């Protein structure tokens, strides 16, 4: 069973439908026991960093997410879910993120001819051996909608990058923790393959 963490964020339904399309039993819940009993856990979301962290903390889900990570349950953050996993964001000065991995969220720099938010299809440069992207062709295209991007604190965590005004760390993986700035659930066959690869990940304890 896959648990999708419900913290009153958008974009949950499309993730739920994509996972069900792959034959998974899916439970959308903010209940600690449901989440910790799942085989895999997904943190989706669209919206503002500060508001989302407030909702997560008021529900006590920050500690639940840390418990998921510490217990080795495969965990996937999507879009805002990726951003929340890191330490801070320029979108919400003074608001601490979950800090599951080192890194910060920065605003995409303005550049002539490029619109912000970064919205649409872009190709990825994939790190050799990245588990989420196994079996995919070189430079696959995925769908993005975001104005802020990840600068990971540990280069070894970066599984895929893309270029849009700057170098964007578009996906990360560290032990049982995975995340995508793009939307796999909106990225056609490539996105479904990424989700399928996540569903095959074995439970793995954090090493740090």
Question: What does this 3D model show about the protein?
Answer:
The protein is of the alpha/beta class. It has a single domain, classed as Class I glutamine amidotransferase (GATase) domain (Rossmann fold). It is 25% helix and 29% strand. The strands form three sheets. An eight-stranded mixed β-sheet has the order 2-1-3-4-13-12-11-8, with helices on both faces. It has a three-stranded mixed β-sheet with strand order 5-6-10. It is globular and about 50 Å long. The two termini are 26 Å apart.
Annotate the secondary structure layout.
Elements: E1 2-5, H1 12-21, E2 26-29, H2 32-36, E3 40-43, H3 49-58, H4 61-70, E4 75-78, H5 80-84, E5 88-89, E6 103-107, E7 118-123, E8 125-126, E9 141-146, E10 148-152, E11 158-163, E12 167-174, E13 177-180, H6 188-199
Parallel strand pairs: 1-2, 1-3, 3-4, 4-13, 5-6
Antiparallel strand pairs: 6-10, 7-9, 8-11, 11-12, 12-13
């Amino acid at each position: 069973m896959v648990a999708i963490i419900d913290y009153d964020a958008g974009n949950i339904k499309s993730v739920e439908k994509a996972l069900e399309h792959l034959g998974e039993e899916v439970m959308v819940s903010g209940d600690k026991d449901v989440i910790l009993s799942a085989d895999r856990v997904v943190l989706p979301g669209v919206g503002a960093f500060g508001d989302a962290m407030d909702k997560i903390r008021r529900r006590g889900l920050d500690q639940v997410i840390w418990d998921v990570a510490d217990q080795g349950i495969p965990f996937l953050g999507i879009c805002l879910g990726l951003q929340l996993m890191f330490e801070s964001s320029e979108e919400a000065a003074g608001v601490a993120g979950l800090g599951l991995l080192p890194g910060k969220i920065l605003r995409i720099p303005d550049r002539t001819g490029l619109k912000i938010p970064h919205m649409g299809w872009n190709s990825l440069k994939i790190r050799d051996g990245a588990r989420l992207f196994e079996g995919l062709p070189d430079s696959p295209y995925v769908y993005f909608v975001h104005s802020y991007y990840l600068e990971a604190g540990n280069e070894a965590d970066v599984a895929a990058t893309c270029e849009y005004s700057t170098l964007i760390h578009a996906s990360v993986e560290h032990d049982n923790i995975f995340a995508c700035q793009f939307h796999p659930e909106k990225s056609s066959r490539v996105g479904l393959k990424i989700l399928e690869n996540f569903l095959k990940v074995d439970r793995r304890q954090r090493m740090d």
